[in-house]
Amino acid sequence: VEIVEVILDVGLGTFRPVKTDDIQYHKMHSEHCQISQHTAQRINLAKDE
Questions:
Q1: pLDDT of residue 13
Q2: pLDDT (tens digit per residue) in 1-49
Q3: Residue range(s) defining the domain that contains residue 33
Q4: What is the pLDDT of residue 27?
Q5: How many domains does the chain divide into?
Q6: Which residue from 12, 20, 22, 37 lies 20 to 30 Å from 28 (Cα-Cα)?
Q7: Cα 47 to chain center, whole Å?
């Protein structure tokens, strides 16, 4: 098992409860994800195994 770093920046809106029956009307805030090239390569190698 190899551990690599993945950064996920979320805001408080990510944890806001869903208050509508139809999920298409639930407004989500944006999230930002960042991984290095090294991390992407390691993930892809693991997926190929």
A1: 82
A2: 899 999 999 988 888 899 999 989 988 888 999 999 999 999 999 999 8
A3: 7-48
A4: 84
A5: 1
A6: 37
A7: 18
Global pTM reads 0.58
Is 41 part of any domain?
Answer: yes
Helix (H) / strand (E) element for 4: namely none
Domain annotation covers residue 43: yes
Alpha carbon distances (Å) from 25 to 19, 33, 49 = 9, 24, 40
What are the DSSP calls for 8-45, one per residue?
Answer: EE--GGGGPPP--SSGGGPPPPP-EEE--HHHHHHHHH
Query: What phi-psi label fits residue 34: left (phi over 0), alpha (psi between -120 and 50 degrees) or beta?
Result: beta
Tell me if 2 is assigned to some domain: no
